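Shipment paperwork, digital attachment
Item: protein structure file
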Amino acid sequence: MSQDAIQKPRSSSKFHFVAGLTTGILSATLLQPADLLKTRLQQSRSTTLLPTLRSILAGPDALRRLWRGTLPSVIRTGFGSALYFSSLNALRSGAASSNVLANTVIVESATGVSATSSSLPVLSKTANLTTGAIARASAGLVLMPVTVIKVRYESSFYSYKSITGAATAIFKQDGFRGFFAGFGATAVRDAPYAGLYVVFYEESKSWMSSLSRHAPLLSTEDMGQGKAALREMTAARSVPINFISGIQAAALATAITNPFDAVKTRLQLLPGKYGNMITAGKRMVREEGWRSLMDGLGLRMGRKAISSALAWTVYEELVRKAEVGLNVAI
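Attachment content:
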């Protein structure tokens, strides 16, 4: 670390929880129709996108039907993001400060401007992969019951009248274990997805930030004005860098992990038929072919790309503003 570098003060875990909750609620509400359509497509190989969409829009209250299952989605994604971002921040900060799986931390130059678009601790690829996977799997376990209710409620296999009715029916049919149906496939999907996402996201940000640093910056004679001008320019560049990086990272990670998502959906809809993750995967391939493992890929990729890019961009900007405030206070 150079003599003119200083370590940023870090925002609290409570702040990261609230920031994650905010971004999760926003993305879940906006993108619920895509999630609904993905569930309908994955429930059977006999369904395709346009007929499914037409059947939803043809009924009464078409817009309301497109947002069916929004409440469990908001609960799952909102609190899931809150738990994920707060635990990920704790893991990454711990790794950075203790040099476990890492050897660098976020620093600022003497002008007070970050060298990259990131507002987060900078870790090695191994640390990014590990912390992302652990944080996502942990959040997924806590919120698994909400995930099962959400998938059942979105599916056309069931005609639940309310969220409470769905939860009651699941408990009566499958007991407490019913709320954790498909957790193995979910963990196998979410842990690698989150780990790969963080790796791809951080690498893309680093590469794009290095390109951006070659662009001309404003210069002023007054150092105080210079700091403000540089910070404003950096914030203006960080948003598109983070958003584009989020889209790229989500698209790559989604394509790699989609088979586990397809298996997970079948297990949560029909646990009695498919049994466990391995049995479900073999049966899907045997009865419907290998393409069944990629059902819903287009919708999932589009949804994850937008939701992840939106959530991470908003989250990083909230963190950036909070830590700029901490710098000013110091």
